[in-house]
């Protein structure tokens, strides 16, 4: 076997086939690496591997076409038939030789993330999974190519047939969708021959045992039937005998039984054993709060996905599968909107976009819009004509599917959904999409309210958001807010850093809850309590029930509060106040007229006792605390604290908060010089060196 391996491996490089395979494959992989990795800064190899798959299918037959076809053409296959070794050893030797020629491509794939890792962060587990899946696809494809080579004596025919079969195997899903969008026995049978589906699934970051077992099964069966063909040629029926033929058929049947049984066995394993989520943000796993909601279900919930099952969004489909594993009360059905265009009318008047979800339980229904399951980050440019900024492009910055679906499930099984009114009309901070998602995913209903348009704040509200009004409340607005709070409602208030007139009425409202807002901006002198400059505060977190999740004794987690106002607790009758964020001892506020020495409060939680019940208010010292970029700088701690405080204020602390799973990688930034160097190396130097080496060796052997 090893002698065959050595001969075949050397023959690939004594002729042009091996050199052309390497040169062409590495040229295109280098091109895609330049485009996706070096230019666009994407740290995921999945983009490169997915793009190069067709090129690989085109070049792979160069490796396998001569394996047995050339032997048959030149009648050297008789040496195989008379060799004192079993045919299977010859097959394995040729197969391993082709795999070893393919190996440099595999090694180059491993080099790409190492290069990108020099200039930024890359997800190692996801990249390694993508490369491993591509390698296993290559193992199966090479075995298929060798089998086809054993069926013909013409190398060109072997190459064309191999290309056609491999190409057809990657088109199975498209062919199946044309046969039946809902699936039937024909499409399920065709799926057995779909070589690209397991590879495509691995690009989403989930390690799936059945997929790798499938590739090994395809490779094993192809090599077995290659051995069977050679053995049949070696022994004619008259010498092989009826018993020998029967024995070979029995072996083939036994192997098929073992392979099918093994694949069926791995498919019936528990899903958590079959699939291992390797994504850095756990995008294909459920969070603990999500599992708690599902495990607590005691009534049936129906989810309709408005898409054919084979056309549904892969990420959402994974999430729904994980949810069904957690509870038996969840049923998921896929509805093809092409075949059932009016299905949605039974649940909503507005037609949802494809891949949206309809969640229902009894008479309660909530539609989860497909686009709401993903967080988008827009790029803006100033438009001179309109005099405003317009969106020019967008990127998907996060996945919010689990949070939106869990919120919808809680909505349809709940008798009451807490409602939060966000006051506007005074130039307040407008919650950004990420914060809105956190609020909605915690099963709150969020609604803006302009006090000018209402005589009173509706009683169905559980709490108010007063987010840094730059314009002061008028007396009428102040009265509406106070009357709302006097009913035992709560509020989360944020102060604004402004150089204009102080909002006296707004500050008077805060004073009624024992919170005094000091003039000026807090500056820290203790480096332990600021980042880069004294105004970018990293306050001390006081351990309370609602700060427990962000508190750490060794300060490994932080709250980020740039440009904060200083807060002080005032002694007020019937009010109890507690500081939960505070500065260091060396903090101060410097204004034109005075210097105020710290420490200062930056977060205060107050309870005002009423004749019947109590009203709660939390005050944060800066609106910058709520900005998405500021929150991301401390890995989401700001929003986590905000949601805990909101739960305490609205007295709905049990509401589940599921954060957005952000695609929070930073693009790889590579300088023009480095980009040019690697582009020339991978697109020009390496492929050209391989090609000219092959031509030189071929010419030398031909001449001599």
What does this structure look like?
- There is one protein chain.
- The protein has 704 residues and is an alpha+beta fold.
- 48% of the residues lie in helices and 17% in strands.
- The chain contains 24 helices and 25 strands.
- β11 (463-467), α20 and β12 form a beta-alpha-beta unit.
- α2 runs antiparallel to α24, α13 (209-234) packs antiparallel against α14 (237-267) and α18 packs parallel to α19 (433-441).
- The longest helix has 33 residues, at 87-119.
- The protein starts with a helix and ends with a helix.
- The mean pLDDT is 84.
Chart the SSEs and their pairings.
Layout: H1 2-14, H2 16-39, H3 46-59, H4 61-64, H5 69-73, H6 77-82, H7 87-119, H8 124-149, H9 155-170, H10 172-179, H11 185-190, H12 196-202, E1 206-208, H13 209-234, H14 237-267, H15 271-274, E2 275-277, H16 288-295, E3 301-305, H17 314-326, E4 330-334, E5 357-361, E6 364-368, E7 374-383, E8 388-399, H18 401-413, E9 419-424, H19 433-441, E10 445-450, E11 463-467, H20 475-485, E12 490-494, H21 504-511, E13 515-517, E14 522-523, E15 530-531, E16 533-537, E17 540-541, E18 561-562, E19 567-569, E20 575-582, E21 588-590, E22 595-597, E23 601-609, E24 614-620, H22 628-633, H23 637-649, E25 661-662, H24 672-703
Parallel strand pairs: 3-4, 9-10, 9-11, 11-12, 12-24
Antiparallel strand pairs: 1-2, 3-5, 5-6, 7-8, 8-25, 13-19, 14-21, 15-16, 16-18, 17-20, 20-23, 21-22, 23-24
Helix pairs in contact: 1-2, 1-7, 2-3, 2-7, 2-24, 3-8, 7-8, 7-13, 8-9, 8-12, 8-13, 13-14, 18-19
């Amino acid at each position: 076997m090893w002698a065959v391996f050595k001969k075949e491996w050397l023959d690939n490089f004594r002729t042009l086939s091996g050199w052309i395979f390497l040169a062409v494959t590495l040229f295109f992989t280098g091109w895609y690496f330049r485009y996706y990795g070096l230019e666009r800064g994407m740290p995921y190899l999945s983009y490169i591997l997915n793009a190069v798959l067709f090129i690989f299918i085109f070049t792979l037959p160069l490796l396998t076409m001569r394996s047995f076809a050339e032997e048959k053409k030149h009648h050297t296959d008789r040496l195989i038939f008379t060799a004192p070794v079993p045919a299977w050893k010859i097959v394995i030797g040729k197969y391993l030789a082709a795999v070893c020629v393919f190996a440099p491509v595999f090694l180059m794939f491993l080099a790409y993330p190492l290069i990108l890792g020099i200039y930024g962060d890359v997800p190692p587990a996801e990249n390694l999974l993508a490369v491993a899946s591509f390698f296993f696809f290559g193992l199966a494809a090479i075995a298929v190519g060798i089998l086809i080579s054993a069926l013909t004596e013409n190398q060109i025919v072997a190459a064309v047939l191999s290309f056609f079969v491999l190409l057809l195997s990657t088109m199975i899903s498209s062919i199946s969708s044309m046969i039946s969008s809902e699936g039937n026995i024909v499409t399920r049978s065709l799926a057995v021959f779909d070589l690209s589906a397991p590879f495509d699934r691995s690009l989403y970051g989930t390690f799936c045992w059945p997929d790798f077992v499938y590739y090994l099964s395809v490779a094993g069966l192809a090599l077995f039937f290659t051995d069977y063909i050679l053995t049949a040629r070696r022994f004619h029926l008259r010498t092989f005998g009826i018993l020998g033929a029967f024995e070979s058929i029995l072996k083939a049947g036994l192997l098929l039984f073992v392979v099918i049984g093994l694949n069926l066995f791995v498919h019936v394993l528990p899903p958590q054993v079959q699939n291992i989520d390797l994504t850095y943000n756990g995008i294909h796993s459920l969070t603990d709060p999500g599992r708690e909601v599902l495990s607590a279900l005691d009534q049936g919930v129906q989810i309709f996905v408005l898409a054919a099952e084979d056309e549904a969004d892969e990420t959402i489909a994974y999430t729904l599968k994980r949810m069904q594993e957690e509870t038996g009360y969840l049923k998921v059905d896929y509805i093809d909107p092409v075949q059932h265009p009016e299905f949605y009318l039974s649940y909503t008047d507005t037609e949802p976009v494809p891949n949206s979800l309809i969640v229902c339980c009894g008479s309660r229904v909530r539609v989860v819009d497909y686009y709401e399951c993903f967080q988008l980050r827009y790029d803006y440019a100033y438009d001179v004509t309109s005099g405003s900024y317009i969106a020019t492009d967008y990127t998907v910055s996060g996945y919010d599917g689990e949070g939106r679906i869990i919120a919808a499930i809680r909505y349809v099984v709940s008798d009451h959904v807490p409602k939060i009114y966000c006051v506007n009309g005074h130039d307040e901070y407008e919650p950004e999409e990420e914060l809105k998602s956190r609020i909605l995913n915690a099963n709150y209903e969020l609604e803006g309210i302009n006090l000018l348009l209402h005589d009173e704040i509706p009683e169905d509200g559980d709490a108010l958001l007063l987010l840094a009004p730059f314009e002061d409340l008028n007396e009428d607005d102040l009265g509406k807010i106070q009357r709302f709070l006097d009913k035992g409602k709560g509020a989360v208030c944020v102060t604004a850093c402004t150089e204009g007139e102080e909002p006296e009425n707004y500050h008077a409202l805060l004073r009624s809850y024992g919170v005094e807002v000091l003039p000026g901006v807090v500056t820290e002198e203790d480096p332990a309590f600021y980042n880069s400059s004294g105004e970018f505060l990293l306050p001390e977190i006081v351990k309370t029930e609602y700060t427990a999740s962000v508190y750490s004794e060794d300060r490994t987690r932080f709250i980020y509060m740039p440009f904060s106002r200083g807060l002080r607790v005032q002694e007020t009758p019937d009010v109890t106040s507690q500081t939960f964020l505070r500065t260091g001892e060396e903090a101060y506020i410097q204004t034109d007229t005075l210097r105020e020495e710290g420490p200062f409060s930056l977060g205060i939680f107050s309870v005002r006792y009423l004749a019947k019940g109590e009203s709660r208010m939390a005050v944060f010292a800066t609106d910058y605390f709520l900005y998405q970029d500021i929150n991301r700088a401390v890995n989401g701690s700001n929003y986590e604290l905000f949601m805990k405080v909101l739960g305490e204020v609205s007295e709905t602390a049990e509401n589940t908060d599921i954060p957005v799973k952000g695609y929070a990688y930073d693009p790889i930034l590579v300088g023009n010089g480095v980009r040019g160097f690697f582009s020339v190396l991978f697109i020009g130097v390496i492929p050209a060196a391989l090609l000219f080496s092959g031509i030189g060796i071929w010419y030398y052997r031909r001449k001599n």
